[in-house]
Specification:
alpha+beta
């Protein structure tokens, strides 16, 4: 049932697997980061919005822990205290362990999960799962946690248990998104501003998937930490890379190893781009917003070195066929490209990108349009 809504699929999966009705349900969205890549764990701003595509979790009481996903269809027993084994249930284990510390976890649970968020495409399927699971399992334990608390549970589950050294952007937007808005999240200060975002966005999947915990993501974060120490050693006492003044870049180019300087330059320039992009979006200046997206992709490609050939082709094709802007979204090394364009150009733009991509890779990329949606919600039991 590939087109079955995830809520209906999760409910029927629960009933079929456990021969009973669930007690609680919750859902959370995937997200697209409009701009602000690799800035969240470097103390800078991000500008994400939530997708209409969601992950739904239904749960009921049980003397042990067992979960089933619509992607594999087989119930899996898991022990939250065991070390991660590289399975999707590691994320559930992380949620349970953090909730236990808060005395907000049930003794056990039977869980069913269904999702319309694509995996491995940079759209934060993991945060959608952990945020939805944290709400469902805490409700099963008869605890009412705030959205902020749910986001923190999900963040700790992914970083402390699963081992992905991410920032808080994905969990925050999954828990706190507002329909029709992007969220300017200043991660250093912790401030948030909802920015109206009425546009439809074209998403083009590269078909290249990545696994964050085992890939280059953690290496890039280590490089950023080393770059920060080198900046401090050079006599610039900042709390985070995003705090480095742009006028210091010329001096720091001589003080840092070449790769570390490129990581620094990306963070500093991306910080400025993200704040300017939020202002352009608020003013309805979509031409300027699009130009910033193109510049952001060039920085991801050249300075952070986290793009891929397929994404570069899509971005170049989008520029050729009249897009306002385009860039690879998410951590990188694969995933999806977001594209902004006037509505009257969208059909011609899609046809041109598909034609160019098929000529290069002999396949048609998965592509779809979307708009900004709402965040975490409790789901009624059907």
């Amino acid at each position: 049932m590939p087109n079955t809504p995830p809520k209906r699929l999760a409910s029927s999966l629960y009933t079929a697997t456990y021969a009973s009705r669930a007690a609680v349900g919750a859902s959370a969205p995937g997200r697209v980061n409009l701009i602000g890549e690799h800035t969240d764990y470097n103390g800078g701003p991000v500008l994400p919005f939530a997708l209409p595509r969601r992950t739904v979790v239904f749960a009921g009481p049980a003397p042990h822990w067992v979960a089933v996903s619509s992607r594999n269809g087989a119930p899996t027993r898991f022990e939250p205290d065991d070390a991660p084994v590289g399975a999707w249930t590691d994320y559930l284990s992380g949620v349970v362990r953090v909730l236990r510390e808060m005395r907000a976890a049930p003794e056990g649970a039977s869980i069913a999960v269904a999702s319309s968020v694509p995996q491995g495409t940079g759209l934060s399927s993991s945060a959608a799962l952990t945020v939805a699971a944290a709400r469902a399992l805490s409700r099963l334990a008869r605890r009412q946690l705030s959205g902020d608390a749910i986001a923190e549970v999900a963040y700790r589950a992914e970083t402390e248990i699963v081992g992905v050294r991410c920032g808080r952007m994905d969990q925050v937007i999954a828990a706190g998104a507002r329909s029709g808005h992007a969220l300017l999240f200043e991660t250093g200060a912790g401030t948030m501003e909802q920015v109206p975002f009425p546009l439809r966005v074209l998403m083009v999947e590269t078909g290249v998937t990545r696994h964050l915990a085992a890939g280059d993501y953690n290496l890039r974060r280590e490089e950023c930490e080393e770059a920060l120490q080198a900046v401090r050693d050079a006599g610039i006492p900042v709390e985070a890379l995003a705090d480095v003044p742009a006028q210091e870049l010329t001096k720091l180019e001589q003080a840092l190893p070449a790769a570390h300087f490129r990581r620094l330059r990306h963070v500093v320039t991306e910080t400025a781009r993200t704040r300017e992009a939020a202002a352009a979006l608020a003013a309805g200046d979509y031409l300027r917003l699009g130009a910033l997206l193109f510049d952001g992709h060039a920085s991801i490609r050249d300075d952070f070195e986290s793009s891929c050939a397929e994404a570069d082709l899509v971005v170049g094709s989008a520029r050729t066929h009249g897009a306002w802007g385009a860039r690879l979204t998410g951590a990188g090394w694969g995933g999806a490209v977001l594209i902004l364009a006037p509505a009257d150009r969208m059909a011609r733009l899609k046809a041109g990108i598909v034609r160019d991509f098929r000529a290069a890779y002999r396949r048609v990329p998965v592509h779809w349009e979307t708009r900004a949606a709402g965040g975490l919600k409790t789901e009624p039991i059907p």
